[in-house]
Amino acid sequence: MEGVVDFHMRKLLTKLGGYDLCVTEFVRVVDITLSRKGFLRYCPELLEGGFTASGTPVRVQLLGQHPKVLADNAVKAIKLGSHGIDLNFGCPAKTVNKSKGGAVLLKEPEKIFEIVHAVRQAVPAEHDVSAKIRLGYDDDSLSLEIADAIEKAGASSVAIHARTKRDGYNPPAYWEKIPTLKSRLSMPVVANGEIWTVEDAFLCQTRSQCRDIMIGRGALARPDLAAHIKATLNDQTHEPITWQDIVSHIIESSRALSKTHTPHYFSSRMKQWLVFLKRQYPQALSLFSTIRTLHSQEEVLRALHAELEAY
Ligand SMILES: Cc1cc2nc3c(=O)[nH]c(=O)nc-3n(C[C@H](O)[C@H](O)[C@H](O)COP(=O)(O)O)c2cc1C
Predict the structure, then answer these.
(1) Which helix (H) or strand (E) holds 158?
(2) Gap from CA of 218 to ligand 1 centroid (Å)
(3) CA–CA dist 173, 10 (Å, integer)
(4) How far apart are CA 15 and CA 246, in angstroms?
(5) Taking 70 as the threshold, does the pLDDT of residue 97 lie above it?
(6) Protein residues with CB under 6 Å of any ligand 1 atom
(7) Cβ distance 116 to 70 under 8 Å?
C-alpha cells in the first residue's frame, strides 16, 4: 500500500505472522527501466532473496500503461529476486490515472490484455505474474471482459478489490460479485476489500467463494489480524499485540529510517499509520494529536518514548 506499507511495515506484519505473500507499494513505470537502486528503494528485501526478515516472500508491484516498458521492468525485478510480478489496475489516484496507469485501464480490457500478455511473455514461466483489479471504473459492466482478458493473457492469479473506482474505499465491498467472475476463471482468485476482523475474513471467504484473501487497511488497523485469522482457522488461541508493542515498533523503525530517509518520510508515514490504528487502538488518537504539530524527529521520538512510559 503506497505511502504506508514499506519495508518496515512488511517486517512488522510478517513477524506477527499469518501472511503468505506481501506485495510492495506500486512502482510507477513511465518510460524507463528502473535501476537496481530504484527497485531496492521500494523493495529492500531484494537484498535478502526477496524475503522479509521472517521469511515471507515479497512481490514487486508495477503500475503503468506501456506493455514493453512494463515487461522490461518486470524482467529486471525478477532478476533482482522479486517473487513474481504483480500488475496494478486498481489505483484510483488522479495523478496515476491521468498518465493512464492504475484503475483507468479498467475501461480498456484489451489494454489490460496487452500489458499482462507482454509481461507474462517476458517473465520466465516459473515466476508468477498476478494482476490486481477493481470490479470496474464507473460500474462493473466490464468486469467479465477484464477477468477474461487477464486469464487469456496468461496471468497466474488475480486479486479482486470488490469495489469500482467510483466506489473509492467506501463500504461495503461487494464480495458477492466475485463468484460470477471466479466461476469462469481457472486461475486462482484472491478476494479483497473491507476485511477488518476475523469475522469479516470468514464472511468474505463465504460470500466471494474464495479461499485466498488479501488484507489492506485492516492490516494497518490491526497488525496481527492475519495471525489471528490463521490461529482461528487452526483452532489455536491468539495473543493480541499490545499498544506498547506497536509503539516500540514505531520507535525501532524510526531509528532505522533515520539512517536512510528524511525525517519527513518517517513522520508522514507514521501519521498515516496512526490514522488507521485509531480504529482499533483508542490510544492512537491521542498520540496522533500529540505529534500532529511536531516537526523534528527528536520531538516525535520524545513523544513516542513518553507514550511508551505511560503504559
Ligand atoms: C493508502 C492506500 C494505499 C494503497 N496503495 C496500494 C498499492 O500501492 N497497490 C495496490 O495494489 N493497492 C493499494 N491500495 C489498495 C489496497 O491494496 C486495497 O485493495 C484496498 O484498500 C481495499 O482493501 P481494504 O478494504 O482491505 O483496505 C492502497 C490503499 C490505500 C488506502
Answers:
(1) strand 157-164
(2) 10
(3) 24
(4) 12
(5) no
(6) 1-4, 25-26, 61, 88, 90-91, 132, 161, 169, 192-195, 215-218
(7) no
Burial 85-124 (b: 16+ CB within 10 A, else e): bbbbbbbbeeebbeeebbbbbbbbbebbbbbbbbbbebbe
H or E element, residue 263:
helix 263-277
* Amino acid symbol at 9: M
Residue 125 to residue 244: CA distance in whole angstroms: 45
**Which tens digits make up the pLDDT trace of 182-230?**
999 999 999 999 999 999 999 999 999 999 999 999 999 999 999 999 9
Is 149's pLDDT higher than 70?
yes
One-letter amino acid at 52 equals T
**Owner of C-alpha cell 473509492:** 168
Q: Decide if 77 contacts 85 (C-beta within 8 A).
A: yes
Q: Which domains does the chain have, with CATH numbers?
A: 7-233 (3.20.20.70), 243-309 (1.20.225.30)
51 or 311: which carries more pLDDT confidence? 51
CA-nearest residue for atom 29, ligand 1, is 1
Long-range CB contact pairs, 208-216, < 8 A, 24+: 208/160, 208/162, 208/175, 208/176, 208/178, 208/179, 208/182, 209/178, 209/179, 209/182, 210/178, 210/182, 212/157, 212/188, 214/159, 214/190, 216/1, 216/161, 216/192
Q: The C-alpha cell of 135 is what?
A: 470490479
Å from CA of 216 to ligand 1 middle: 5
Q: Residue 185 region, left (φ>0) first, then alpha (ψ -120 to 50), else beta?
A: beta
Phi, psi of 290 (to 5 degrees): -65, -45
Please say if 204 is a catalytic residue.
no
